[in-house]
Amino acid sequence: MPNFKTLDDLPADLSGKVALVRVDLNLPMNGGSASDVTRVEASKPTILELAEKGAKVLLLAHFGRPGGARSSVLSTSMVQGDVEEVLGKEIMFVPEVAGPVVEQSLGILRDGDIGLLDNVRFWPGEEANDADFAASIAAHGDIYVNDAFSAAHRAHATTEGIARILPAYAGRAMERELSALDAALGNPEAPVAAVVGGAKVSTKLAVLKNLVGKVQHLIIGGGMANTFLAARGVDVGKSLCEHDLTDTANQIMDEADHAGCTVHLPYDVVVAKEFAATPASLRTCNVHEVASDEMILDIGPQAVEALADVLKTCRTLVLNGPLGAFETTPFDEATVALAKTAAALTQDGSLTSVAGGGDTVAALNHAKVAGDFTYISTAGGAFLEWMEGKELPGVAALSA
């Protein structure tokens, strides 16, 4: 686990100090306001704790992809109202990130007040991680706090550059995320199971290759499982399948064999001739009985039961991706059933469960068990790169 400082390492009184806090305010919008404020809620404890300690808090965030140019619809002022509502405090919008306007705003803000700087990606120096740009922002602050794990896989000026100039700390959300990830793959309690689902093997190759050396059970679901089944000589009919990757799938299974990792593939599946809600052609069969005009859309009840038995022998679970086409009923049954088993084992105290990725969060919300997992990461790319075993620049900079 990287050795980083947290808010606990700061003095109790930060009066007269300016805290530059990197947060994730890249919120989904609907008609001028955010349709989901989970990311703001995640950083709320950090922002309020720094304000209560007397610091002037300046929030750094990106919003959309403006490509290094100003855009009125991508200004962070668009989410100012949503942030104020979550924090329960008024905040000052500052239409710059550095220079005299920021200096002037700091003269107006009192200790414990909060300012929201404009979209850091309006300046090309952000994504280029330009040292001068980072220094121009850092000049206004005394300390830097990163509370945006979801942007930690980017080596940008506000995620990595400033952390090398000012004393750097992990915010509460970042601290919680890093502790959970360490418990899941960094220093986990064995046996460890990983569920990896999703449509394509090609998007998760690095994840699978990293996991076979770290976990005792690798459970493969979704469209990816079809590619592995095809590699084992199973005729998957019209199913979504990357036939050009069967050699790669076999190589991953061989590597798992050598590492003492059991790869679990379904032996019964739910198939249909057309992809629709409860189609007339729906049936459950053995994987070797899939007809040429059928497609596999979920794993079957026997396979789910066997996987539930596997989880009962494990102490740690990492979950990324659904087992079937869960957005359409009844192809959500396996995903929901296994999620409920994992949730129950977590609540019993026998399993540490960490899940992440957009589809995964949606699937756990659908199964109504999101609150029962040990930790759920809302980070997409950063979570995936962590599962690939990559060093995340924004995290590495905190331990520099």
Q: Could you give a short description of this structure?
A:
The chain has helices at 38-52, 80-87, 100-108, 124-127, 131-138, 157-161, 172-186, 205-211, 222-231, 246-259, 301-312, 333-348, 358-366, 381-387, 393-396, and strands at 18-22, 29-30, 33-34, 56-60, 92-94, 114-117, 143-146, 168-170, 192-196, 217-220, 262-264, 268-272, 283-286, 295-299, 316-320, 352-356, 375-377.
How would the blueprint of this fold be written?
Elements: E1 18-22, E2 29-30, E3 33-34, H1 38-52, E4 56-60, H2 80-87, E5 92-94, H3 100-108, E6 114-117, H4 124-127, H5 131-138, E7 143-146, H6 157-161, E8 168-170, H7 172-186, E9 192-196, H8 205-211, E10 217-220, H9 222-231, H10 246-259, E11 262-264, E12 268-272, E13 283-286, E14 295-299, H11 301-312, E15 316-320, H12 333-348, E16 352-356, H13 358-366, E17 375-377, H14 381-387, H15 393-396
Parallel strand pairs: 1-4, 1-7, 4-6, 5-6, 7-8, 9-10, 9-15, 10-11, 15-16, 16-17
Antiparallel strand pairs: 2-3, 12-13, 12-14
Helix pairs in contact: 1-2, 9-10, 11-12
